[in-house]
Amino acid sequence: MSRASPGARRRARADSVLRLEREVHDCRACPRLVRWREEVSRVKRREHAQASYWGKPVPAFGAEDARVLFLGLAPGAHGANRTGRPFTGDGAGPFLYGALHRAGFSSRANSASRDDGLELRGARITNAVRCVPPGNQPSPAESARCAPYLDRELALLGKLRVIVCLGAIAWRAAQDALARRAGAKPRRARFGHGALQELDGVWLIASYHPSQLNTRTGRLSAAMFDAVLERARQLSRG
After folding, report:
1. Element spanning 227, H or E
2. Partners of 204 in beta bridges
3. Which of 45, 70, 160, 178 is deepest in the core (most CB within 10 A)?
4. CA count, 13 A, side-chain hemisphere, 95
5. 6-237: what fold?
6. Residue from 136, 155, 130, 123 nearest 228 by CA
7. With contact defined as beta carbons under 8 Å apart, do 175 and 185 qualify?
8. CB-based contacts of 38, cutoff 8 Å, min separation 6
9. Phi, psi of 21, rounded to the nearest 5 degrees
10. How do the pLDDT tens digits run along the chain, 238 residues long?
């Protein structure tokens, strides 16, 4: 079980998912990221020229009683930065949500928009950094400013048992967040697809990121990802 301190538990009770989402929505702590997310939303891609971009920090999505959290790096410029939902609107989305549907975590296989009616079951999705960064590379300072949002997310997920880390940066962010929660130094197990680590009562499972760079080249196959999700389901029940 989690070893969260009494102070952390009191702060979690005083917080709420709605309050966290509102604060994420209004955040302007990183000037470079604010400029970039708004520029992307203004310039747009040709195929999305008529779309109304979200253009703000992207809050988490999914069940508030989730036992499994899927953690990515940051929103896609013309995906979540456009739609306002993690892993929605770009090439990674169909792969991820298709797998979630096969595993029983999602009510449907495709995520189209914030209001499409899709529901996650026992699962939640978020990113270590809530704004799209230039080149998909947030600076260390930007990652540090965003880290308290992940800390609060973990505190609010009282039934959390598993974090599926989509990529090496998410793996490290989860290690750091759980170390902060426990008041300890981070323990660094090596990232690798399928790697496991238990920290502060939560299992971390590593997966290659479901970007098209990985899925189209065969570095990450549907079978590989399905195996990660099955392991996550097993551990979440333990």
Report:
1. helix 222-237
2. 163, 197
3. 70
4. 20
5. Uracil-DNA Glycosylase, subunit E (3.40.470)
6. 123
7. no
8. 55
9. -60, -40
10. 445 555 555 555 567 999 999 999 999 999 999 999 999 999 999 999 999 999 999 999 999 999 999 999 999 999 999 999 999 999 999 999 999 999 999 999 999 999 999 999 999 999 999 999 999 999 999 999 999 999 999 999 999 999 999 999 999 999 999 999 999 999 999 999 999 999 999 999 999 999 999 999 999 999 999 999 999 999 999 7
pTM (2 decimals)? 0.93
Alpha carbon separation from 129 to 24, 58, 104, 218, 222 (Å, rounded) = 10, 9, 27, 26, 26
143 vs 137: CA distance, rounded Å: 10
Distance in angstroms (rounded) separating the CA atoms of residues 64 and 120: 10
Q: Of 230, 218, 169, which Cα lies nearest the Cα of 194?
A: 230
Q: Which residue has the tokens 């426990």?
A: 182
H/E stretch holding 61 reads strand 61-62
